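Predict the 3D structure for this chain.
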Amino acid sequence: MAGALAFAAATFFATAARADNRTPHGYQLFIERMDTGEYAAEPFTQDGKSLYWPGYKKLCAVLRDEHVSPHYGYVQIDVRTIEALWAVQQYLIRDGIDAPIVVHSGYRTPQTNAAIEGAARMSLHMWGKAVDFHVPGVSLDELAGICRACPISGGVGYYPEGWVHLDTGPRRFWVG
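Done. Predicted structure below.
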């Protein structure tokens, strides 16, 4: 099942690279913060070429480090990371799953990162280039396969405890 899903996702992403395959939601990304319940359904671009600042800033606010003051925990998230999340969500929407990406961890300050047992010392979370998440109704195995098939993604980590890690660093895969 996961192999067939990964093939379907790879086919979708290859087709999306050649054509405008936006869903009726356009360039809107639906994210929800697991611990705070914050929610954003915002476009990060309106034309697929330039940033739409009001929506992008709201998405970045939800992806901030929630363990510190909003003043210190907010950072501009790497646009490629937001594009990768959007691409994964578009695939799911086309497959009939219209659910938010539930964020476990987005940007992390170095202090927050150091306090997390097992976190990489040079984690891409500290540069706004990584997100840990799950999607209600989607198995982690399926979600990891979709993320791996996404050409924008770099690292994909599968964590059986309840989330998938997606970043825009070098291509790699691991099980945590």
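The CA atoms of residues 124 and 149 lie 20 Å apart.
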